[in-house]
Design goal:
single chain, 371 residues, alpha+beta, Beta-Lactamase, Helix Hairpins, Heat Shock Protein 90, 3 domains, five-stranded antiparallel sheet, 9 helices, 47% helix, 21% strand, elongated
Length: 371
């Protein structure tokens, strides 16, 4: 093979190599670029030669050069596998992986820098898909762990709480079989009825939990066909019967109608009042306030007693939460969770404030339908 043929082959190898070659002067200007790189950039040689290399880089690529590539080159003279995005003439980003090396003279003076660039479109896509798969897998794993925790809590708590009323019913049946007088039978039947209601309420809570966590939220039937005030008053009367040792003060100033699901708001008020009975001071009144102000309906329930401990506040609206400091008599520990879900279903919020003077839960929601 002749010398001319060798020279021609070396030149072709440089110009049409399956990668981009670029040489930079000591001040960072392009002094040579092969045809492969120019084709990627859709530029002619006179559009590139003599220009700063920064002009061919994306904003992120410039940062990578200044903060990573250039400092490493000064320290070790070469750098491998740096991600750089080039900018084509049409503004399209071209992802590449760059290797760089400095050329110095015998005295260590920097003469020029050589860059070899490899297109990395497929590699970047693959890396992104790996990252997305990792994020998805971590999210699924986290969701499975959370579901497992809730499932274990559900089985343990439901098994304990539902066993009590069912046990009471079974005991009542045995007593009925030996009861000698009608008045005894009537009293036993009354207790059994309460136990059945208790079991039914637990099942309702479980159904609401399922709708809230798996069904995309509670379903509410909102309308303005009737008044809300009588519903709330009935709830207060029921709690007074259940907890006769607690005083409940009410103030209602509702500009009817309120566009809502009245049964669900009654359930929310009942849950908040039951929570106040459980955790409030027995010798101080519980206060329920329900009123409209502007376009809002606001309901609050307040009680005195010890403030909610800081360490449990973040978990108050979580399912199965009963509090580690004060044991709850509120069934499965779903009362505040369901109340919060009811608030969300009404496009509202349920917040609380607690200090040494009082603990207050407050519902705020639109009084009318969405425009």
């Amino acid at each position: 093979m002749s010398e001319a043929t060798l020279s021609e082959n070396f030149e072709d190898l440089y110009e049409t190599a399956p990668c981009g070659y670029v040489s930079l002067s000591a001040d960072g200007k392009i002094v040579k670029a092969n045809r492969t790189l120019l084709d990627w950039l859709e530029r002619k040689p006179d559009e590139v030669i003599g220009r700063p290399v920064h002009d061919l880089l994306s904003f992120g690529g410039r940062i990578a050069v200044e903060t990573h590539l250039a400092p490493l080159l000064r320290i070790q003279g070469q750098v491998h596998e740096i991600a750089l995005d080039l900018l084509a003439a049409n503004g399209e980003k071209i992802p590449t992986i760059a290797n760089a090396a400095e050329k110095r003279d015998a005295n260590g003076r920097h003469l020029f820098t050589r860059l070899t660039l490899f297109k990395a479109v497929d590699r970047r896509t693959y890396e992104r898909s790996l990252l997305e798969a990792q994020v998805k897998a971590e999210a699924e794993s986290r969701a499975q762990r959370e579901a497992a925790v809730i499932r274990e809590q559900f089985i343990a708590v439901l098994g304990h709480d539902l066993r009590n009323p069912l046990g009471a019913v079974a005991a009542g049946i045995r007593l009925l079989q030996t009861a000698g007088r009608q008045d005894q039978a009537d009293a036993i039947l009354a207790d059994m009825g309460q136990s059945v209601e208790r079991a039914s309420a637990l099942i309702d809570d479980v159904l609401d939990l399922t709708r809230g966590t798996l069904g995309g939220g509670l379903v509410v039937d909102r309308n303005g066909d009737a008044e809300l005030t009588p519903v709330l008053q009935q709830v207060v009367n029921e709690i007074r019967l259940i907890a006769p040792d607690h005083s409940i003060e009410t103030r209602m100033a509702i500009d009817e109608p309120v566009y809502c699901d009245r049964d669900r708001l009654g359930q929310l008020a009942s849950n908040l009042l039951a929570n106040a009975v459980t955790h409030g001071a027995a010798d101080r009144p519980i206060r329920l306030d329900a009123h409209t102000a502007g376009g809002e309906f606001i309901l609050s329930v307040a009680n005195t007693g010890e403030p909610i401990p800081q360490e449990v506040r973040a978990s108050l609206f979580q399912p199965f939460f009963r509090g580690q400091v004060r044991p709850s008599r509120n069934g499965l520990g779903l009362g505040l969770f369901i109340a919060s879900e009811i608030a969300k279903a009404h496009d509202g919020t349920l917040d609380f404030a607690s200090d040494e003077h009082e603990t207050r839960f407050t519902l705020r929601m639109p009084r009318g339908p969405k425009p």
